[in-house]
Amino acid sequence: MTPKLHLDEAWIARGRAAAGRIADWMEAFTSARTTVAVERTVLRLFGVDGVNAEGVPLPNVIVDAVQAAGGLAGGIARPFVNGMLATGLSAQALAEAVADGSVRLDELPDMDESAVREAGLRWAEGALDRIAANRRRREALLERLDEGPAPLLYVIVATGNIYEDVVQARAAARQGADIIAVIRSTGQSLLDYVPYGATTEGYGGTYATQENFRIMREALDEVGEEIGRYIRLCNYCSGLCMPEIAAMGALERLDVMLNDALYGILFRDINPQRTLVDQMFSRMINAYAGVIINTGEDNYLTTADAVQAAHTVLASQFINEQFALRAGLREEQMGLGHAFEMDPALEDGFLLEVAQAQMAREIFPRAPLKYMPPTKHMTGNIFRGHVQDALFNLAGILTQQGIQLLGMMTEQIHTPLLSDRHLSLEAAKYIFRNARHLGDEVVFRPDGRIARRAREVLREAVDLLERIERMGFLEALADGVFADVRRTPAGGRGLSGVVMRGPTYFNPFEELLRARLGLEVQV
């Protein structure tokens, strides 16, 4: 797009450079560590699924046993592949044998090291080939069916019952939705395991399981053929099982996944070390699968003031971009987040919002930015809420956002009804149709309120990034620089699941992903 805000390119370059140095330091930190979730992901990609007699997922059973024996520093792949070679069992059969106690991995004879490594890489290639085939199928469907024009209309379903979600998702697609996001059940991000199978009970959403992913993908493919438009499926791979859910999404051809380097730390009190290690591997999987990630900067403005904290959103976008690049994500896969959260009582609040949205669009020109609707200042007055959403939609089309998460006029009252979603889709389509090329016609005065505001936010963001670089990223989180929330390196949930890698650490998926994504091989 044509730049309109007269932003100083030198300041943008300074911001990227500072974020890049922060990301380099964090990459060195995370590459020296693994987590129980990363190792469970390795098993899932090998084909391990299901639960034991007590309902515990088999990947948890195996990883927990190896960790308890002190063997996780070398990774789960070596003992597990050794077990498959020693027993002749498939990955699933070996997992079931370990779970019922008939096989102990630490009692099996050691096979030749080179044979273990060769077999691990060969079996990993098979799983990655399946993911690559899913990506090619998506690309073929998009070429044949196409999709709606940007901004893509993104709506949520959240009944708790996957089969009812299917009914609502199909209705939303027929009404014009381009992306269906199945909201996870409240608190799932804090579970250190992935529930198994199709689920029909959830609070505030539906559990993210591989079977639920399969059911919804099949339903959206069917309705997509019916209406002649590809419908993208979104779910959440944040939380304590971030890389596992990323792998499940890749295996079931999800298209969009919520995946943020900071969201779980700030808003779910998940340990920073755990989250940062998990996000790196999860993003490599998303990158290879062709998934668009959505980041969560919009949430900062629910706990901090949108005017005062605007620069923290931009700083986090810079950091998320650099983390994503180091995981192999293309800019076209970075749905960097921001939100329309200006107080409606604020004079010229719409101008400030346009400044923020236009600034993000110009600084990240190839990213399909994810623009979030008003939530913080929704009061239950559905008429005012509908107007707030209309202004949000106008800002989205004016500044050419990529993904527009539609607001509901009943926000803060109840989970949206079918009728609420229908009204939101109709309103958004009306505004987008009537103002489709408004952004091509509008320019901003170099000395006007919008341009001045954007330059001010950019300078503050760069100053913050350089301060974070000086003090250290983990120390900055402890100081509460984002969202006014303080998180310490040793605090939060999940630290016990972080393990220092040993000198013989082996993760065949990471090795192959780095090679296939053209990333530097870690030594």
From TrEMBL:
<dbReference type="Pfam" id="PF09043">
    <property type="entry name" value="Lys-AminoMut_A"/>
</dbReference>
<dbReference type="InterPro" id="IPR037086">
    <property type="entry name" value="Lys-AminoMut_asu_sf"/>
</dbReference>
<dbReference type="InterPro" id="IPR016176">
    <property type="entry name" value="Cbl-dep_enz_cat"/>
</dbReference>
<dbReference type="InterPro" id="IPR015130">
    <property type="entry name" value="Lys-AminoMut_A"/>
</dbReference>
<dbReference type="GO" id="GO:0031419">
    <property type="term" value="F:cobalamin binding"/>
</dbReference>
<protein>
    <submittedName>
        <fullName>Beta-lysine 5,6-aminomutase alpha subunit</fullName>
    </submittedName>
</protein>
<feature type="domain" description="D-Lysine 5,6-aminomutase alpha subunit">
    <location>
        <begin position="5"/>
        <end position="512"/>
    </location>
</feature>
<dbReference type="GO" id="GO:0003824">
    <property type="term" value="F:catalytic activity"/>
</dbReference>
